[in-house]
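ARCHIVE ENTRY
Sequence with per-residue tokens
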Amino acid sequence: MNKIAKSVKAAEAFSISENAELIARASALVPLIREHRAEAEKLRRAPPQCIEAIEQAGLFRIFVPREYGGYEVDLRTAIDIYSEIGRGCASTAWAHMILATINLAVCLMSDQAQRDVFGENPEARVAGVFVPRGKATPVEGGYKLSGTWPFCSGCHYGDWFALMGAVINEKGEVVDEIVHLIPAKDVEILDDWYVTGLRGSGSNSVRVKEIFIPQHRTVKAPQLLGYDPPATHCTNTPIYRSAMGPLLTLVLAIPALGAARSAIEEFKARMSGRSIPYTFYTKQSEAAVTHLRLGEAATKIETAEALARHVAYEIDQSAERNEPVSVEARMRLKAQASYVSRLCLEGVETLYLSGGGSAISETSPIQRISRDLHAANLHGLICFDTNTEAYGRTMLGLQPNTFMV
């Protein structure tokens, strides 16, 4: 074996070891995050001690370039980390997933934008919304941005914000969609996150008014999806060459996967000493119907996990080989990713409906998981119906009815 081959193998071995260590750190945080999940609901955001622990574990830096102290992990590692945090609390996992993944999006922007964010603070976190809720007006040297963006998850812990605005011409037509990178001091967080699911995700609306954004801190929507992004390192590092539409869809499904895995643990733990009222079963664990429902739920959740791994592997492989991903393949991957979240919801609902009357108690983890997964499945990007429709359209030679390709 020549020296170059040995160096490549040594680098791969280091990466595998490092990735395993990051997943282990996420697993070690599960007890702490579970301890504070009720507090997350009361605060309507992830508890600060959980965010601090995630930061100390380096898990906000998983997609940050190595030159800024990050890890540049592949997608398979990222979903394992997100799933482990989800075992602790779906809301905290959702906030972590959004903040860490939008950091990845920033890494597709100009090199100067990355220096602005990570140069002085490698632990910087970026919240954001990639829906053009704001109006962007071109001015000398950049844009003026105004607007209000709902559902900005993790916003209380964002050092920066990535917010999309539409450029509108004199005829009132949208001619461009631009993501703008804005320091937190220029962003107002509204107190409007009063919801039934993912309460602890801190997905408040945010607002900016006539803020100037320099050109180097903007990126067009297609570039953000991986089509000729301005970042120079994108040609050398696989994760930054990923098909971003499918990637973003998949990561949104993973907190639900972790929570669903937790629901199986919680259901099994509840079996001790439980009977089935109005039957002769003194032990619920001995009833055939319990076996059927648990087996059905576990099969759906395990299938979701296998499907998530398959989608992540396919995205990673295309990025590692620097191969283009066709529009139809992207729509297929997005449909499969959205099905991960749907399967998790179906599995959890089966467990919830088999939990008896006490399952509705506020202290019951399964009812909280059920509410959280219903909320997650309502997110537009992982809506199963719209994703399968787009996939079906491309299978018949039609254009998908979405810009998130």
